[in-house]
Amino acid sequence: MKSRNVFQKNFNVKTALAFLVLSFISIIIFSYSIYNASLSIIENEDINHIEDSLEQSSANISAYLEKMKSFSNIIAMHPDIKKALEKSDKKALESISSLVGLAKDSDIRIRSITVVSKEGFAITGGASMTMPLSENMMEEEWYKNALYSDRMPVLASTGHGVFTMDKEDWIISIAREIKGDNNEHLGVVLIDVSYKFIEDYLSKLNLGSGGYSAIISKQGDIIYYPDISIFEDNERSGELVNFVKEESIQPHTEKTVKKYIEFKNKKLYKTEITNSQWILYGFSSQDNIKLLKHNLFRSISVYALFTLFVSIIIGIFLSYYLTVPLRKLTLAMTRADKTWEHIKVPKGASYEVNTLSDEYNNLIDRIKILTKNISQKEEARRIFEIKVLQSQINPHFLYNTLDTILWLAELGENERVAQVSSNLGKMLRVSLNTEQTFVRLGTELEHTRSYLEIQKARYEDMLNYNIEDSAQTGILDLYVPKLIIQPIVENAIYHGIRKVGTGMINIDYKNENGILVINVSDNGAGFVIKNQENIYEDKTKHSSTIKPKLGGIGLKNVSQRIKLLCGDEYGLDIKSEPGKGTKVTVRIKYMADLQEAEALK
């Protein structure tokens, strides 16, 4: 509980904790913002990279197709093409054959270049002619397909026969119609390119682990897909085609649609391939993004933890630096509580600390004034109380003493009258001297002896006493508050011995570990002590506890004076037992010098 209170009250800890909490919240917010911003940048960079790669691949394929179209245009528009197809000019035929051969040899991907007239005459370059020829080529299916393709590339098998699943036989065919001067149909130029050229360009695409690309025509025909089994799986191919068709409903003017959607845990990108009716699709895997997210989160977490650690160090240092003046001020205040001196302002202290120091010093000045006034009043009151307590005289004792003197005088006991009168005079001199607070122990014992002699003159053999001599040197010269033994003896006579008829009072004294100890014991009636603290309080007449009180100066009086003069650790200790007597032990500060004793006042 104590440590908890210290923690709650320690400004240094509070400052460090507040800085830590603020830093923690700031770091969390900042890290979260950095994470989101970085993630957005990474995702955008990934999107841009894929889009750029996709567009580049599309541009490469488009450029290659444009090159093939250029070849077909050159051949179809050559001045000698008409003569060559009509077989009317041998030189023209050689020229076209040479041109076809040069075009074929210029690119290893070209499987074949074929020029076919509508009457079935063909000029070939590369692979041997495998397509069927006839005098009316418009009746041949492959010829019509080539003619109607309108210079757009199409996927076919070598020979333009039945499509097979042998990818080595796959070709991309580009046809160009040959027209005469009057725009009449003369034939076609057919360029067959190896299917592998598409794979060569798309292999450079980086779509992540598990990512892939696809080419689908606007008519819904799959041109390219990494897994060729899709070409004979109508369900899979239909699902893919239907999906991309749905995504292609909205018209767009840009080459690349600047958005992506989820498709089987892949992000879909698409771009048109010019010079064709194809669309290139990229299905990007999310594994790279997930890995980047993980690495980014880990990096930012490490950064956040490191920043938090640095913030803790800075917070501790800062709180220590900020609270040094306050702690110095607190320490100075703690010391000032004991000395009541002005505190010095710590070096480099803030305006608030300076103000607090000034106010505290002003408070000390006011406390000093108040304390001085209170001390003066308390000292005056204490001296007054001591004098009042010292001046109390039991009127009954004085009356009884005078009565004893009268009684002795009537009996003619002049010597005893003189002795009693002398003892009474000694007592009155000590009692009525209010200026004298301390007396020597020997003087106090003589005063007590005078009192006992007066009482013995009255009670005669009923009262006996003994004042022991101490073997300790100089003990009788010690100073004690006056009138502290006689009231105890008086209490022993009136409340002890007189109740049993006869008795003995014994007084001894000694120096015990620097404390003067005086014992006054009697073998009188004794009484029951229920509570040592309340032994001086008045009791009702029905109480079974005897009230140890004198007619004049009681035990409470003696105890109060000792405590006022010597301190609360000194005073009386009373032990009593009914039928056996009472022992009162007086403990007084050891005072060998009168100046030391008077200083206690």
UniProtKB/TrEMBL annotation:
TM region(s), chain numbering: 12-35, 300-323
Coiled coil (residue ranges): 353-380
Domain spans labelled Signal transduction histidine kinase internal region: 385-462
Domain Cache: 41-261
Keywords of the record: Cell membrane, Coiled coil, Membrane, Transmembrane, Transmembrane helix
Major subcellular location class: membrane
UniProt superkingdom: Bacteria
Cellular component, GO, one term: plasma membrane
Annotated compartments: Cell membrane
CDD domains found in the cross-reference section: PDC1_HK_sensor (cd18773)
Designated name of the protein: Histidine kinase
Provenance organism: Johnsonella ignava ATCC 51276
Source taxonomy: Bacteria, Bacillati, Bacillota, Clostridia, Lachnospirales
